[in-house]
Amino acid sequence: ANGLSDEVCVVKTGCFGLCALGPIMIVYPEGTFYSMVQEEDIPEIVTEHLLKGNVVKHLLYEETVKADKIIPLNETNFYKKQHRVALRNCGVINPENIEEYIAMDGYAALGKVLTEMTPEEVIKVVTDSGLRGRGGGGFPTGRKWSLCAPNKAPQKYVVCNADEGDPGAFMDRSVLEGDPHSVIEAMAIAGYAIGATQGYVYVRAEYPIAVKRLQIAIDQAREYGLLGKNIFDSGFDFDLHIRLGAGAFVCGEETALMTSIEGNRGEPRPRPPYPAVKGLYESPTVENNVETFANIPQIILKGADWFASMGTERSKGTKVFALGGKIKHTGLVEIP
Question: Structure pTM?
Fold first, then answer.
């Protein structure tokens, strides 16, 4: 409005993590951080800040007011101690625009894998990084992939477990809503590593925004040739589909989840045989959780040593936690 359309661009993003203070609005380039913004506050922000360049003090984030200078979001107390890998793009990019993901090195890891690395090398990097399953099981991701890779079959599968059923948990939801392409890219990398051409994301139907944004992302990736046939002219084919969970908590267990994708009642199966040998449709399958996948592209680009330098002796990297209850700042944090 008012001739500002060329100068001002409004970008919808995913969750910033600081849920206690939402809705959040940040004005760039200086990074002015407004918290708890209501619809009725918008005219004031537009007329005062965007048109006249005056910061609207009473809407500012408390730390900025105390410091009497603009503190960028990543330098606030809530973010300073964090190290964002899985959530690196959440709140930063528009999840419904593939070009914004590509601008943040998106799909560079897939390109590197398909043009410069063998499947064995990919598995070695993931193994050496020390990444373990972020869904709670903590199984070494590289080991899971290496158990599946040698098994011969006409069809293999990559499955993403996005059936986050724990009360008060919204880590996977935030990744899918804020950075869906990171999961798509990682699943394609996993497909190449184990020799699978088909993937499924099993996401709970109670996450409608996550489902919508994931579908938009899958469609855009197909349009750009990043899913489908002959990706990066490498001869590698990979495609993805979404399956919706109907609210059964047990379907978060990997074998029950696969049974549910097959159209049956989601009940766990005895193991062995493990999914790496006999998983979805009785074919070799790798299943990882959303947050586990979200780390993969960065591990490929920055190397195993970079990832292994964070975290503890037995659990490398970072972990996303959902903080709820009677605390000052509820929300999502990612720490080593």
Answer: 0.95
